[in-house]
Sequence to fold (144 residues):
Amino acid sequence: MGVSINVRQAYSEIDEFLELISNEQKNKIPKKLRNFFREEKDANYIKKINSQIPIKNQKLKEETLAIIALLNLQYWCEDEEEKQRLKEIYAKNEKKYQEHLQVQFNPNEIFKKKENITESSSIIEYKESIIKKIINKIKNIFLR
Fold:
């Protein structure tokens, strides 16, 4: 399975982002990784990143923001306390995201909804009247 279009577009945004940062910051990222972003990006996707606008206001893809966060943690953040603080923030965010998914896609809730639908749309049982039962019994006696 290949890389999705969204991820390739995120690589395009990352490649452009890396062109905007200082050489000192850029050189902290291994050349092999920078080349990977450049080679795997979507060549037809162009996202103009304005260096005058904060990253959070650039309307970048979630994947791009996640990669930037990872690059920051792995290569640019040199203070161990800051790294630990970021890891805790990322862990909290991941926990919130997983809880959201658990609520949204909780199998127990999905089955409860299905049970409610089944109960409300159950088949109405038709009961024979007493006269109809007697007539059917008489017919059965004569058919023997």
User: Anything to note?
Assistant: Residues 79-122 form one domain.
